[in-house]
Specification:
434 Repressor (Amino-terminal Domain); mainly alpha
Length: 171
């Protein structure tokens, strides 16, 4: 129980310290010149992060509330947290940190593409760790459609499996 309290107390201190270091000008807000404490006010963070003021106040007070990864991301953006601070925020909130770098495109070497092309009549593709189809040959396109005109989402094998009429079993 003591660890749980310590974690929420640290979350409270962490959020407050990061809020205090952001000026209203940095956040794109007008400076009212009448501030008792440095940095942003709680209501300004809540407004910019699109969360309720009471909810953000509870979070910053270290109350035991459950927070989503999306809300943590919005708060991290408002508070201009760097990668290590963002990880710390997730750790304190006991949320699994989202994978980073998942939007980086995987690279296919020219040798690998030549190998795919050499497969002739065998439909062949290469997928990344998230099952995004990143390379293919003509036979694969003949079977599954022209992948060059598909969006990244449509070129995901899981997405294709559940949304494409070609993958549906019909009696």
């Amino acid at each position: 129980m003591a660890n749980r309290l310590d974690r929420y107390e640290e979350l409270s201190r962490f959020l407050r310290s990061r809020r205090e270091r952001i000026t209203p000008e940095q956040a794109g807000l007008p400076d009212s010149r009448r501030r008792r404490t440095p940095g942003l006010r709680r209501n300004e963070v809540a407004l910019l992060a699109d969360v309720g003021l009471d909810w953000y106040t509870y979070l910053e007070q270290g109350r035991h509330i459950n927070v989503s990864a999306e809300v943590l991301d919005r708060i991290a953006k408002v508070l201009r947290l760097d990668e290590s601070e963002r990880r710390h925020l997730y750790h304190l909130a006991r949320k699994q940190f989202p994978l980073t770098g998942t939007k980086q495109p995987s690279k296919v070497t020219s040798e690998l593409q030549r190998f795919l092309d050499s497969q002739n009549l065998s439909p062949t593709n290469v997928m990344d760790a998230r099952m995004n189809i990143i390379a293919w040959n003509e036979a694969y396109c003949a079977l599954n459609g022209n992948l060059t005109i598909m969006s990244d989402r449509e070129r995901n094998l899981v997405w294709m499996t559940f949304t494409s009429p070609r993958f549906r079993y019909v009696k």
